[in-house]
Write a structure and sequence with these properties.
The chain is of the alpha/beta class. It is 43% helix and 14% strand.
Length: 280
């Protein structure tokens, strides 16, 4: 019989490219505090991190992710020669990076081929081009679902699945708190990458206009969902511990701050959990 007093815990991992290393530190803090998920939801890079957690909802998954992020930093798996990127952009016009390195990372390291075979229920989201709707992947092959969620417009090509085409999940659900509520979560831990902590400023330069507009589009649904969380649901937005979270791609700043961001998030989230959760 289901215990009616038991909390249904969801980990919600948002998008953010290379800033997703922040979530590794948050996961370490959660597992150190003895907090485990009953449900994992991911968007974009959060779908990658989330899948590894759903496959192994223990501290071992955080350790594994830390190793993979270090590998990305040291070996530059997602970095290509700028001339090669320029050639790809000239050839295709719609993107300048290959999604193959991400496909290889998932296939070679996750150890699970189908979403329903994960240890903990997992869902990730992508933007369906043909219908202009969110598509939640809840079963079926996991690699194409994650790739679809990570298909950043202009950077990667749209991902085709069963004749349909998908772009980055952040276009429709940057941090899917509402989905966790719909699925019955009573305790939600939001693993964001730091962007929502930073206020936006009125653009003063031409290149800032698109960036600010995109951030508004990314954030507004998240803020509306946060405001609509009912009183009987406990919400924890884990802090990143960083003073800045620029809108950068997965190819920028990889070598410089991956481990630093993870450690900052670990320290800040540990302090938060000690104060807000473990003392209760």
């Amino acid at each position: 019989m289901t215990d009616p007093t038991r909390r249904h815990t969801a980990f919600v991992l948002g998008g953010g490219g290379v800033l997703g290393a922040t979530q590794v530190g948050m996961l370490r803090a959660l597992f150190d505090a003895g907090i485990r998920p009953d449900l994992v939801l991911g968007t974009s890079i959060g779908s990658v991190n989330g899948a590894f957690v759903a496959a192994d909802p223990t501290s071992a998954s955080a350790d594994r992710l830390a190793e993979l992020w270090t590998k990305v930093r040291e070996e530059g798996d997602f970095m290509e020669n700028p001339l090669k990127q320029a050639a790809r952009a000239a050839k295709y016009w719609t993107h300048f990076m290959s999604i193959r390195p991400l496909r290889n990372l998932i296939d070679e390291n996750l150890g699970v081929e189908r979403i329903e075979d994960l240890t903990v229920p997992f869902q990730c989201v992508a933007a369906h081009i043909e219908s202009s709707r969110a598509r939640w992947f809840t079963a079926g092959p996991i690699t194409p679902a994650i790739l679809a969620s990570c298909a950043v417009p202009g950077m990667f090509p749209p991902v085709e699945i069963d004749g349909q085409h998908f772009m980055d999940g952040g276009l429709v659900h940057s941090i899917p708190v509402g989905r966790a509520l719909t699925l019955g979560a009573t305790e939600i831990y939001v693993l964001q990458v730091g962007r929502v902590e930073q206020p936006l400023h009125v653009p003063t330069k031409p290149w800032e206009v698109a960036s600010v507009a995109f951030e508004i589009a990314r954030r507004h649904r998240y803020h509306e969902e946060i405001d609509s969380v009912p009183d009987d649901v406990t919400l924890h937005v884990l802090p990143s511990g960083s003073t800045s979270a620029p809108a950068i791609s997965i190819t920028q700043g990889v070598a410089a701050r991956i481990e630093e961001r993870a450690e900052q998030a670990y320290q800040a989230s540990t302090a938060y959990l000690n104060d807000q959760v473990l003392r209760i």
